[in-house]
Amino acid sequence: MNVSSEKYQYVSSAKLPTRWGQFTIHGFVESESNQEHVALSYGEWTEEEIIPIRIHSECLTGDALFSTRCDCGAQLEKGLQNIVKNGKGVLLYLRQEGRGIGLLNKIKAYQLQDQGMDTVEANEHLGFDADLRDYSICELMLATLKVKSVKLMTNNPKKRAALSSLGINVVERVPIDHGVTDDNRHYIQTKTEKLGHQFLPEQYTKR
Asked: Least CB-packed of 22, 75, 120, 151 within 10 Å?
C-alpha cells in the first residue's frame, strides 16, 4: 500500500481483533495538521466488487463513553456488525469530533443545548457552521484499500454526495437508523429537519 497525496498519507496497517471478528486497522494522516484517521477493513475483495462501507465521524461521548445524547455509538457498532455479517467491508473512522468543531467546543454546544438550543443553533451560536466536516481523505483511504464502488451505510445525504464528488461509485445507500432513545429524539429530529438526514418521523417521534 503506497497510495499517497500531497494532503494525506497512508502510514501503516495491523491486525485488530474485535468482539465481532478480526479486522485490519489502517492508519492515515493529514500532512498539514497531523490529524490522524483510521480505516477498518474486514475480508478480501477485488477492485471490481461493490463493497459495503460506513463513514463514521469520531464521537468520544457516544463511541467510548456510551452517551445516549446521540446515536453515534449505536451506529458505529451496527456498522461493524453489518460488515462482518456481509463477510467484507470497510469502516472509515474520521477524527472530526462534533461535526468538525472539536471535543471541547462540542461540550460547550452541549451546555447550550441543555439551555434549550438544538444542535444546529448551538453550533451557530458558537460561531461555527452546522457541519464543518470534510470527507476528501476518503478518496485516499478507499484507493489504498482498492475500493471503487460502494454500498454506503448512512442516513446523511451529504456523505453520499461527497463520495460521488470524489469519483467513488455509490451504488446504494443503506439506512443505518439505530440508536434512537428518549434522550436523543429531539437531536435526531433536528438532524432530519435542518440537516437533511434521512430518518422517518415515526423513528424519532415518541410513542
From this structure: 22
Tens digits of residue pLDDT in 100-132: 999 999 999 999 999 999 999 999 999 999 899
Marked catalytic residue, from 131, 160, 177, 182: 131
CATH code for position 145: 3.40.50.10990
**What pTM, to 2 d.p., does this model score?**
0.91
List Cβ neighbours of 120 (8 Å cut-off, separation of 6 or more).
130, 190, 194, 195
Task: Look up 71 and say whether it is catalytic.
Answer: no
Tell me how many domains the chain contains. 1
Domain of 70 in residue numbering reads as: 8-96+133-178
Is 92 within a domain? yes
| Residue of 133, 173, 183, 185 with catalytic role | 133
Alpha-carbon Rg for the chain in angstroms: 17
Query: What cell does 192 get?
Result: 432530519
Question: Is 95 tagged catalytic?
Answer: no
C-alpha cell at 47: 477492485
Strands 36-42 and 22-30 come out as antiparallel
